[in-house]
Write a structure and sequence with these properties.
The complex is a heterodimer. By secondary structure, chain A is of the alpha/beta class. Chain A contains eleven helices and twelve strands. Chain A is globular and about 65 Å long. The longest helix of chain B is centred in the middle third of the chain and has 18 residues. Classes of the chains: A alpha/beta, B alpha/beta.
C-alpha cells in the first residue's frame, strides 16, 4: 500500500500571553510536539488520548486549520504530492478538495440559515478553479446525499428539522461532495446516542469502501475506535507515545500510558470485570511539561532515566512503535486481560 | 428470614409537563425498587426520562414539571420512612431527606459547586445543617471524607476553591459531599460522562469501594452499557418515558427479552470481539420526540418484531419470571426460563 499522508516532525505551539494591552508572550504551550506518522491509502488511523492531549490540534494542523509551527505534511494525490505546510492561500484553497473534516457537534457545524442542499453544495461553489453549472451541482449533491442516507425531499429543508444523527449525515455529505482523498473525523459520534452512533460508524465504513476514502479518526471512545480503525496512535501531552495495528495496541500495549487507557475501558459484559490500572495524580500542565518522558510523573514503572532522557519511539514488533525506555522489557496488561476473562467465562 | 424492605420503592411514577393548562406526560408508570446495598442502573438514551426520574426522587424537578401520579417510598436505614411524592418541593420534610438520607452526584462537577465558596465550606455545610454540629466538627468530618475519596492533603483542600480542582478531583469532592451524612441511597446521574476514560476508571473504582464501606444503595443513571455491566446488580431499561425491561445484570446482558434491549446491545462496539469482526447493528430510525410519542408500545415503529395491529393500539403486557420483567407482547416466550 502506498502512503497517502505523511506527517514528519509536526509541531504546533500556542503562545501564552499576559492579559492587558501589551499581551506579552510569557511562554508557550506545545500542543503537538514533533509528531511523525503516515496513513496508507484506504486505511483508517485512529487517534486516541484524553482531553488536552492535542489530538484535535493535530487533526486541524494536518488540514492547515491551524498553522503548524514546524514540520511537514505531505499528501500524495492523483495529481502528485502536495506539501500542505508550504501552500500559499490560493493553493491551499485548491488543495482542500483533497482533504476534508467532519466535526463533533452537528448542531454547531451546520449553518441554520442554509438549506441542506446549499450546505452540501457549498464546497462545489467555493471551488473556483472548476466551475460547475447548477444542474451538475444538483446532480452531485443528490448523488452524495443519497449515499449518506438522505433523500431528495430532505434537501429542501433546514438543519433544525433534523435529529443529531441526520445532521451528522449532512455534515458527512458536505465533507464528501468533493470526493476527497483524506477525511479527518474529529469525534464524529461522541454527541450521538448509542443506537445512532452505530448508524454513523457503519455509514463511515460503507463510504470508505465505496469511495476509497482514507480516515484519520479522532475519538476518545476506545471501543468505537477499535471498531473502525486498522491502526491506532495514542497521544499523551502532545506526543504520540504508541502507534501500531489496533489489535496490538489494544491487547499487547507497550507503553504504560496505553496500558492505563486500555484497562480502563468498561466492557459491556458483566463477565469481563473492570480492573483498571489506575493512574496516579493529574495530567501535568501542558505549558510546563515534565522533563524527560512526559508520562513519568504518573507512571508506575518510571526510573531516574525517565526524568533525564526523553524516550524515542522504538519499533518493538513490525510496525508497532512505542516511546518508552522499557518498552521491550515491560509486560503490560492490555484489553486482552479483560477479553481472556470473558472468554474463560463463556467456555465454562 | 424475611428479606429486609427495600430502601426505595417507586410505584407507578408519572411525571408531566404542565403547559398552558395542558398536561404532557414525560414519563409514565415507572416502577422499580432498590434493596439495601444494591446498585440499580437506570439506562436509556437521551430523552428517555431517566434523569427526570432521578430529579423527581429528590423533589428537584423544575417548576414546569410535576409528579402527576405515583409513590416514592423511602425507607432509610435509621428507620425513617416517607412517601417523597407526597412531600412537595419545599419545606422541612423534604430538606431532612435531601442531602442526608439521599445523596446525589451529578454529571457536571463544574456547575455543582459554588465557585465563590471553598470546597471545605460547601461540604461541611451539609453536616452543619443536617446534624447541627459545630463548625469544627463539621470541618473535621469533611476532611475525613475528602481523605476517603482520595483527595491528597484533605485538610489543605478544605480551604481551596472549586476552580483549583481538576474535573476528576471535583467529582471526588462531590462524592464526599453526597456521602458525608451516610445516606441510605445515593443517586448518581451520569457521574463519569464528562470525565476522561482513565479518570472514569478511578471514579468507578472509588464508588465500588465506598459502596462496600458505607453499604448504601445506589441508583446509577447512565447511557453507557459498559458502565452498567461493570457497576450494576440490576438493570432497568427506559425507552421514551417507560421502563421496558428490568432484571439482574447477568441475565439482562446474556438473555435480554425486550427487542429494544437486544437492539441496544447489538449496537454497541465491544473490545472483546475485535478479532471476530462482529458488525454492530444500528437501530433504524431515531428516538421519538416526547411531545409526539408513538401510541401503544413506544418502540413499535422501530421494532423488528412488532405486530402493527396490536403494538400500535395498546400498551404491551408486562410479563415477569423471577426478578426479570419485560413489557412486550412477546415477553412470555422470550423471557429466559
Amino acid at each position: 500500500m502506498s502512503e497517502l499522508l505523511t506527517v514528519t516532525d509536526l509541531s504546533v505551539h500556542f503562545p501564552v500571553r499576559t492579559r492587558g494591552v501589551w499581551r506579552k508572550t510569557v511562554g508557550r504551550i506545545v500542543a503537538v510536539d514533533n509528531v511523525s506518522f503516515a496513513i496508507a491509502r484506504g486505511e483508517t488511523l485512529g487517534l486516541v488520548g484524553e482531553s488536552g492531549s492535542g489530538k484535535t490540534t493535530l487533526g486541524l494542523a494536518i488540514l492547515r486549520g491551524t498553522q503548524p509551527t514546524s514540520g511537514r505534511v505531505e499528501l500524495t494525490a492523483a495529481s502528485g504530492t502536495i506539501d500542505v505546510t508550504k501552500l500559499d492561500k490560493q493553493a491551499l484553497r485548491d488543495a482542500r478538495q483533497h482533504f476534508q473534516m467532519i466535526f463533533q457537534d452537528p448542531y454547531a457545524s451546520l449553518n441554520p440559515r442554509m438549506t441542506v442542499r446549499d450546505i452540501i453544495a457549498e464546497p462545489l461553489i467555493a471551488r473556483r478553479r472548476q466551475k460547475m453549472d447548477r444542474k451538475a451541482i444538483d446532480a452531485r449533491v443528490v448523488e452524495i446525499a443519497e449515499k449518506c442516507g438522505l433523500n431528495r425531499e430532505q434537501l429542501r429543508r433546514y438543519p433544525h428539522a433534523f435529529s443529531g444523527g441526520q445532521r451528522q449525515r449532512i455534515a458527512i455529505a458536505r465533507a464528501l461532495v468533493l470526493h476527497p482523498d483524506l477525511v479527518v473525523c474529529d469525534e464524529p459520534t461522541s454527541s450521538l446516542d448509542v443506537s445512532i452512533q452505530a448508524q454513523i460508524l457503519n455509514l463511515l465504513a460503507e463510504l470508505q469502501e465505496s469511495l476509497g476514502l482514507t480516515y484519520l479518526f479522532i475519538a476518545h471512545d476506545l471501543a468505537a475506535v477499535a471498531y473502525v480503525c486498522d491502526r491506532v496512535a495514542v497521544m499523551y501531552l502532545g506526543q504520540i507515545v504508541e502507534i501500531g495495528a489496533t489489535r496490538d495496541v489494544y491487547f499487547t500495549p507497550r507503553h504504560p500510558y496505553t496500558e492505563a487507557l486500555m484497562s480502563s475501558v468498561p466492557e459491556p459484559d458483566p463477565a469481563a470485570p473492570l480492573q483498571p490500572m489506575l493512574l496516579q495524580g493529574e495530567r501535568p500542565d501542558p505549558a510546563n511539561p515534565p522533563s524527560g518522558c512526559r508520562f513519568r510523573t504518573r507512571c508506575r514503572y518510571a526510573t531516574e532515566l525517565c526524568a533525564t532522557t526523553a524516550p524515542a519511539p522504538v519499533e518493538i514488533e513490525p510496525n508497532h512503535f512505542a516511546a518508552c525506555h522499557y518498552a521491550k522489557e515491560l509486560s503490560l496488561k492490555g484489553a486482552l486481560a479483560l477479553r481472556n476473562a470473558s472468554q474463560e467465562k463463556v467456555a465454562e | 428470614m424475611n428479606a429486609p424492605q427495600p430502601v426505595l420503592d417507586v410505584v407507578d411514577l408519572s411525571i408531566a409537563l404542565g403547559q398552558d393548562g395542558a398536561r404532557i406526560p414525560i414519563t409514565e408508570d415507572v416502577s422499580f425498587s432498590i434493596a439495601r446495598g444494591e446498585v440499580l442502573a437506570l439506562v436509556g438514551e437521551s430523552g428517555s426520562g431517566k434523569s427526570i426520574t432521578a430529579l423527581a426522587l429528590m423533589q428537584l424537578l423544575s417548576r414546569s414539571l410535576f409528579i402527576a401520579k405515583g409513590r416514592i417510598q423511602l425507607r432509610a436505614v435509621d428507620g425513617f420512612e416517607a412517601d417523597i411524592a407526597a412531600l412537595g418541593r419545599d419545606g422541612k420534610a423534604i430538606e431532612a431527606i435531601r442531602g442526608a438520607r439521599m445523596g446525589m452526584i451529578f454529571q457536571e462537577p463544574m456547575s455543582s459547586f459554588s465557585p465563590i465558596h471553598t470546597i471545605g465550606a460547601q461540604i461541611a455545610e451539609v453536616v452543619e445543617i443536617h446534624e447541627r454540629v459545630s463548625r469544627q466538627v463539621a470541618r473535621a468530618r469533611a476532611a475525613e471524607l475528602l481523605a476517603k475519596v482520595g483527595i491528597p492533603d484533605p485538610k489543605g483542600a478544605l480551604d481551596r476553591y472549586p476552580s483549583e480542582f481538576s474535573g476528576g478531583m471535583r467529582q471526588r469532592a462531590m462524592i464526599a459531599r453526597a456521602l458525608i451524612c451516610s445516606p441510605s441511597l445515593l443517586i448518581a446521574d451520569e457521574p463519569t460522562t464528562a470525565l476522561d476514560v482513565t479518570i472514569q476508571g478511578q471514579i468507578l473504582d472509588l464508588l465500588r469501594k465506598l459502596q462496600h464501606e458505607f453499604g448504601m444503595a445506589i441508583l446509577f443513571i447512565t447511557h453507557d452499557l459498559g458502565i452498567v455491566a461493570q457497576m450494576a446488580d440490576r438493570v432497568a431499561i427506559m425507552y421514551a418515558g417507560r421502563i421496558v425491561e428490568s432484571g439482574p445484570v447477568g441475565e439482562m446482558f446474556r438473555q435480554p427479552a425486550h427487542p429494544y434491549t437486544r437492539a441496544l446491545l447489538a449496537a454497541v462496539p465491544r473490545l472483546g470481539d475485535l478479532d471476530q469482526r462482529r458488525k454492530i447493528k444500528p437501530i433504524a430510525g431515531s428516538v421519538p420526540n416526547i411531545f409526539d410519542a408513538p401510541s401503544g408500545c413506544r418502540f413499535h415503529p422501530r421494532c423488528p418484531v412488532a405486530d402493527p395491529a396490536r403494538c400500535a393500539s395498546q400498551l404491551p403486557p408486562v410479563h415477569a419470571r423471577g426478578a426479570h420483567a419485560v413489557a412486550c407482547i412477546h415477553g412470555k416466550t422470550e423471557l429466559p426460563a
